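Worked problem 6 (solution included).
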Amino acid sequence: MSAPALQSPPPPATQLPTPPAAIARILKVAGDPTKSLGELSEICAQDPGLTVELLRVANSARYAGQPVHSVPKAVVKLGARAVRATSVTYAIRAAVSGCYTGTFDTNKFWEDSLRRATASQMLAQLAGLDDPFEAFAVGLMQDLGTLMLAIQHPNFGTALSAFTTLPGHDRCVRERAITGLDHATMFRHGPLSGSLPENIVAAISHHHHESLDARAPKLILVAQAADRLADLVQAGASTHNIEHAEAALKTLGIREELGKLVDQLGVQTRRLGDELAIRTSAQPSMDMLLGQANLALLDITSQAEERARALEAELEQQEAEARRLEAENRELSVLAHQDALTGVDNRRMFLRQVQGAIEKGHQLNKPISIVMLDADHFKHVNDTWGHGAGDEVLKAIARRVQKNVGGPHRMGRLGGEEFGILLPGADERLAQRIAERVRAAIAAEPVIADGATIPVTVSFGGVTTKLGEPLATVASLFELADQRLYVAKRSGRNRVCWG
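Solution. The predicted structure is:
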C-alpha cells in the first residue's frame, strides 16, 4: 500500500472574487478628513499594480508638468480626489480580473459602472454630501452584483448583458427569473460586501428600490437618483424613465434641469473613462435620447411587435438551454469529485480536502487526524463470492464508516478496498476512539450480498499532527498512516494502530 500523491486541481470556474484589502483601507483613509495625503500614498504604495496605475495617470496627457516617478509625488500631483477614484477603481477591477463570465459584455459593464459612479458623484455634490467620493464608490460598485451573477452563471452572460438596457425594476425581475437573485441581493450576500462600511453596502443594496423616502440616508437617495439618471442613457428617455429620474432629483432637493444633468453626465463619463483607462463609447445628449425615444414610438408597428415576440421566444429557448447545460455541468462536477461506487469523495477530492484541513489546522493551532483503512482478505471475498459481492462489501464499509464517525469529517476512496478518513480538530485520543468505534461497527455484523453472508473486518492505521511542529504535508501524513496500517495488518488484522 503506497502513500497517495498530492494533487493540486485548479479552483472552480464559478468561484467568486476575493475582496482586496485595499478597497476598505482606501475608503477609510480617503473619507477621513484628518488623514493626510501621505497616509493615502503609503496605502497605495503597498500594491505594485496600483503603483503602476497611479504613475500612469499622473504622467498622462491630462496632467501636464514634470514626469513623476514615485507614489508620493504622484499623489501630490493628482490630488486626493483623483487618487481616491483611481485607487478604488483599480482595486475593484483587480478583484474581479480574470474571472470567467462567458459571453457577458464586460467592456459595456465597466462603461455603465463608470456612468453610475459619475452620476453619483455629481448628484452628491449638488445634494451637499460631506464626501462625494463615497457616492462615487457606491456608483462604481452598485452593479457589481451583475458581474457576480455572470461569474456564477456564465451560460447566462448574453441575457445578463441584455438586461442592462432595461429600467432598474424590470432588470431585477428578469435577473431573478433566470438566476434566482437580482444583482443588488447578490452583492449584499457576496464576499466583497464584507470589506465595506455598512452605509456603502446599504446604499448599493437599496439603489433599485421603487419607493423614494426623503427620510432615508442621503447616500441611499443619491444612489437611487444616479441609477435613474443612468437609466435614461441605458434604457432610453421614455416618459416613465424621465418621470422616475425627476422624482428622484426632487426627493434629493436638486433643482437643476434634467437635460443639463444628462449632458454633463456624458461629458464627465468620457473624461473619467480616459483618465481611468476604461473604454467608453460616445455618450448621447438629452436631445439625442429624446429623438431616439420619439423614433422608437413611431416604429411600434405590428411587424416590430412580431419581431419582439420572436426575440423573446428565442431568448427563452436560449435560457432553457443554458439551464439544461448548467444542470449537466453540476452533475458532471459531482461525478468528477465523487467515487461512483460508494458515493464518498474520490481520491483527488479527498486529497484536496486533506490539504485544506492541514493549512487551516496550522493557522488555528488545532490538530487533524488522518485514518487509512483497508478491508481484510478482500481478494478472498472476490474469489469466493464474486466481484458483485465485493462491491456490496465496499459500499457497506462506506455506509458504516459515515454512520459511526459523526461530527465534521470527510471520507474518500483511495483505490481498491482502501479508504481514508479526515478528522479535522480531532486529537489522537479522540481519533483513536472514533476509529475503534468504526472498526467495531463494521465487524459487528456480516454483509448480505446475493443471499450470501459475508463476514467483514477492516484494519486501521492513523496519525495525528503535533501542535507547534512545522506544517505537515499530505504525503508525509499518509506515509505515516500507511505504516501504521501495515502494522495493523501484520499484527493480525481487525485492529487500530496509531503513530
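Discussion: Residues 302-337 form the longest helix (36 residues).
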